[in-house]
TrEMBL record:
Name of the protein: UDP-N-acetylglucosamine transferase subunit ALG14
Chief subcellular location: endoplasmic reticulum
Keyword Transmembrane helix: yes
Top-level taxon in the UniProt lineage: Eukaryota
Topology versus the membrane: Single-pass membrane protein
Protein family membership: Belongs to the ALG14 family.
GO terms for MF: N-acetylglucosaminyldiphosphodolichol N-acetylglucosaminyltransferase activity
Subcellular location: Endoplasmic reticulum membrane
Keywords: Endoplasmic reticulum, Membrane, Transferase, Transmembrane, Transmembrane helix
Length: 212
């Protein structure tokens, strides 16, 4: 076998390994067999949207055990100044980190052009997530969380990260999932809705009452 043939075979093996790992993880996620056992504090990412999404997720943050979920990193869009103010008000005297990534889609931006901006945001997010290596990611609907969750899932497929994704659908979604929810239902480890009838909309949805 020549060097080029060996290299080609090696690349094919890597691709097959990645695809098998991806399929395996999707099956594990969809069948609800995901677990996360930690005896020490959980490295946590909160993916902040803007406006109402920020308010909802920060309500959830106020009710968690701060000592259990630390260190905490908040990831938000680079042009979202108001959310940073709300985070600082919530995290008074606490240790936390802020990270900014490009916004996936701006208001009134076309869906076609948002594909390009989302890809750029995804590439930008890789070093952010890899550096923190979170154990768990919480998000609740903004498009900003798509790059974060995609990167976490891909790094998990590559055996570079052991992270769980928890998607909490916005309280405003009463009958149907948001676009983000429709995407993440295939690779978020836990899908939570805040209206009981929504469990009929998403086969994986779990209802625990109002969380945000």
């Amino acid at each position: 076998m020549t060097g080029s043939e060996f290299f080609s075979s090696f690349c094919v093996l890597l691709i097959l390994t990645f695809l098998i790992r991806m399929i395996y993880l999707i099956i594990v996620i969809i069948t609800g067999n995901c677990t996360l056992i930690r005896s020490k504090p959980i490295r946590t990412v909160f993916c902040i949207g803007s406006g109402g999404h920020t308010t909802e997720l920060l309500r959830f943050v106020k009710n968690i055990n701060m000592k259990k979920y630390q260190p905490r990193m908040y990831i938000l869009a680079d042009n979202d100044a108001s959310s940073e103010v709300k985070i600082r008000e919530t995290e008074i005297d606490n240790n936390y980190y802020l990270a900014r990534i490009p916004r996936s889609r701006n208001v009134k931006q076309s869906y076609l052009s948002s594909v390009v901006s989302t890809l750029y945001a995804t590439l930008y997010t890789f070093p952010v997530i890899y550096k923190l290596k979170p154990d768990i990611i919480f998000c609740n609907g903004p498009g900003t969380c798509i790059p974060v969750c995609v990167v976490a899932f891909l790094l998990r497929c590559l055996f570079l990260l052991d992270c769980r994704i928890v998607f909490i659908e916005s309280i405003c979604r009463v009958h149907t999932l948001s676009l983000t929810g429709k995407i993440l239902q295939f690779f978020a480890d836990i899908m939570i809705v805040q209206w009981p009838n929504m469990t009929e909309t998403c086969f994986r949805a779990k209802y625990f009452g109002r969380l945000t």
